[in-house]
Write a structure and sequence with these properties.
By secondary structure, the protein is α/β, with parallel strands linked by helices. Helix content is 40%, strand content 18%. The protein has helices spanning 10-16, 49-52, 61-71, 84-96, 108-127, 146-151, 155-158, 176-182, 206-218, 240-244, 270-273, 289-302, 305-329, 354-364, 386-405; strands at 28-32, 35-38, 43-46, 101-105, 133-137, 168-171, 187-192, 195-196, 202-203, 222-226, 250-253, 264-268, 332-338, 341-346, 366-367, 369-370, 375-378. Helix 4 packs parallel to helix 12 (289-302). The chain is globular and about 60 Å long. The structure holds pyridoxal-5'-phosphate. InterPro entries: Ac/SucOrn_transaminase_bac, AcOrn/SuccOrn_fam, Aminotrans_3, Aminotrans_3_PPA_site, Class-III_PLP-dep_AT, PyrdxlP-dep_Trfase, PyrdxlP-dep_Trfase_major, PyrdxlP-dep_Trfase_small.
């Protein structure tokens, strides 16, 4: 049964949408695995993954199965009741991590909002209102609500919306001395991405995260890891904190957690969770059965040795070829990142041109991302086929060949 829809085009975007995005000239209509087709029937290889969301590619059979089964069972019931998919997903997240309690919501920003509110609530209850300061990193990204842009270290996202949330300090990332100088007994939380995603695909130094953990313990501050982008297998470990062996007090997840269905989660310990007592926080859609059923299928597939080992092998395949392409065309030198979150750092002559490279790549039939103006980012499906990696990188190489000839 197929509904007849009114025809729409890219040009309609400018007539009907708030102009806060600048989408590409083509409109994707269908996806399968790591391939996407646009309205004209043109096929593209997807190394963008919906910005690190489509961790199992497009229309993965396990996810389609979970979604359609749940769609025929129960869609929404609200948090006046609990539901089976939410309880099962919470148990799986707890079994797989440090966490003992889970709060579900609908996005990364909301997971962070819950994390920051919990950190402040804990400090307020245990030590009083003075202990409310949050330290975060310059260039970090934590979402677009007022609290999360205030904690995020990019003024371009937080300026111009009236007074920001107070009590937030920013320090340079991977600079332990700066963190040491900033932290005090008024600090309630230190918030870090174990790999800065939007800020340029910059992994933390081992000593930095270990040092941050120690400083938090010394000052009774909570360590919050934003794993919205780095989590759910992206780094080759289920969560990146496990790769480093540095355990946070609170962790936020979203993006790949739903594999394309909107869901976010905040993970924490039971001792901290008890500070969000009945009525202190909530969201209508949080723990929605459809979202949780899909996320349960996502974690079932990803949290297996095959997929996680596969991420590391595919990382090798990507970086080997990318390094060769970067050298050959002189566009980028360093390829950094972890697992399948990779960034090509543009050389001096190409600085600021990440968007031009994205457009050239799309013209050759491969979707990639930028992470700021100076880094080309790859966040493909964690189960992308080797043949798709090779073909997509051949297209990427053709794009660079054309750009450098021009
Ligand atoms: C994308 C992202 C967010 C925001 O997630 P939304 O779902 O867009 O609200 C927060 N933190 C990090 C690290 C992200 O990459």
């Amino acid at each position: 049964m197929s509904v007849q829809h009114d025809p729409v085009q890219r040009a309609d975007f400018d007539q009907v949408m708030v102009p806060n995005y600048a989408p590409a000239a083509f409109v994707p209509v269908r996806g399968e695995g790591s391939r996407v087709w646009d309205q004209a029937g043109r096929e593209l290889i997807d190394f963008a993954g919906g910005i690190a969301v489509n961790a199992l590619g497009h229309c993965h059979p396990a996810l389609v199965g979970a979604l359609t089964e749940q769609a025929n069972t129960l869609w929404h019931i609200s948090n006046v009741f609990t539901n089976e998919p939410a309880l099962r997903l919470a148990k799986k997240l707890i079994d797989a991590t440090f966490a003992e309690r889970v709060f579900f919501c609908n996005s990364g920003a909301e997971a962070n909002e819950a994390a920051f509110k919990l950190a402040r609530r804990v400090a307020h209850d245990r030590f009083g209102p003075e202990k409310h300061e949050i330290i975060a990193a310059t260039n970090s990204f934590h979402g677009r609500t007022l609290f999360t842009v205030s904690v995020g270290g990019q003024p371009k996202y937080s300026d111009g919306f009236g007074p920001k949330i107070q009590g937030i300090t920013h320090v340079p990332y991977n600079d332990l001395e700066a963190l040491k100088a900033a932290i005090s007994d008024k600090t309630c939380a230190v918030v870090l991405e174990p790999i800065q995603g939007e800020g340029g695909v910059l992994p933390a130094d081992q000593a930095y995260l270990e040092g941050a953990r120690q400083l938090c313990d010394q000052h009774n501050a909570l360590l919050v890891f934003d794993e919205v982008q780095s989590g759910m297998g992206r780094s080759g470990s289920l969560f990146t904190y496990q790769h480093y062996g540095v355990t946070p007090d609170i962790l936020s997840s979203a993006k790949s957690l739903g594999g394309g269905f909107p869901i976010g989660a905040m993970l924490t310990t039971s001792a901290l969770a008890k500070h969000l007592a009945v009525g202190t926080h909530g969201t209508t859609y949080g723990g929605n059965p459809l979202a949780c059923a899909v996320a349960e299928a996502v974690i079932d597939v990803i949290n297996t040795p095959q997929v996680l080992e596969g991420v590391k092998a595919k990382q090798q395949r990507f970086t080997r070829k990318l390094q060769q392409i970067g050298e050959q065309y002189g566009v980028f030198g360093q390829v950094r990142g972890l697992g399948l979150l990779l960034g090509c750092v543009l050389n001096e002559a190409w600085k600021g041109k990440a968007k031009a490279i994205l457009d050239a790549a799309a013209a050759e039939g491969v979707m990639v991302l930028q992470a700021g103006p100076d880094v080309v980012r790859f966040a493909p499906s964690l189960v992308v086929e080797d043949a798709d990696i090779d073909e997509g990188l051949a297209r990427f190489e053709r794009a660079l060949a054309k750009l450098t000839q021009a």
